[in-house]
Design a protein that fits this description.
The chain is mainly alpha-helical and 215 residues long. It has a domain at 63-210: Tetracycline Repressor, domain 2, CATH 1.10.357. The chain contains 10 helices and no strands. The protein has helices spanning 7-31, 38-45, 49-55, 59-81, 88-105, 107-114, 120-146, 155-174, 183-189, 193-210. The radius of gyration is 20 Å and the shape is elongated. The model has no long low-confidence stretch (mean pLDDT 88).
């Protein structure tokens, strides 16, 4: 007789997998992908390391799944912020602000997603979601061009460049959070609210200037 998993077994397996991903993402948000070792994820999840490998064949597979879940959530928030009745310029402004603001609110996770050196498998996921962000920006840029708010341009090239620009603009401010550090050092290096607001405004203004829009 061929074994068939019961609903209870499937639910238990799914619950374990979700717990692993939840704890692993928490570790990444605290110390980057390097903090999410198999042993540490197992300890935080309250399971044996062998159980991790039954769900994820390698750490690279686990990290890729963490990255996929985190970036899907971030992309959803950026897209949701722009789904309002407003001009293309205002919607772009909100999308850029959300992208940057969320990164600054969760700096360790943001640095891991944007710039931390990773396994080639995870790097492919990073590239995939850069494309996803670019596609979202393409739509906004095209709407802005048609409305006369942005200068005529190749929307695919501009959108890809915009995603790269946003990431690069945030690497420096996020860099102090690249690794686990003494909390006293972290507090000393953290930006003030005024500095954070100024950075957000500069990034938004730079993005709109790049599109030929009004800042």
């Amino acid at each position: 007789m061929v074994y068939q998993a019961t609903d209870s077994t499937r639910a238990k397996k799914s619950g374990t997998r979700n717990r692993i991903l939840k704890e692993a993402r928490l570790l990444v948000s605290q110390g980057g992908f390097g903090a999410a070792s198999i042993a540490e994820v197992a300890r935080c999840s309250g399971i044996a390391t062998g159980t991790i490998y039954r769900h994820f064949p390698s750490k690279a597979e686990l990290v890729a799944e963490i990255f996929r879940h985190a970036t899907e959530h971030e992309l959803h928030e950026v897209m949701r912020s722009a789904q309002i009745e407003a001009t293309a310029s205002e919607r772009m402004r909100r999308a850029v602000r959300t992208f940057a603001e969320r990164a600054l609110q969760g700096p360790r996770l943001a640095y891991a997603l944007i710039a931390e050196p990773v396994d080639p498998l995870v790097e492919r996921e990073r590239l995939s979601y850069r494309f996803a962000y670019a596609e979202h920006f393409e739509d906004l840029i095209q709407e802005g061009i048609e409305a006369g708010e942005f200068a005529p341009q190749n929307v695919a090239i501009t959108a890809a460049a915009l995603v790269g620009m946003l990431s690069e603009a945030l690497v420096g401010p996020l860099a102090p959070y690249a690794n686990r550090q003494d909390e006293t050092v972290m507090e000393r290096q953290a930006m003030t609210d005024k500095q954070r607001d100024e950075l957000l405004q500069e990034i938004i203004a730079l993005s709109l200037r790049a599109l030929g829009g009004k800042t």
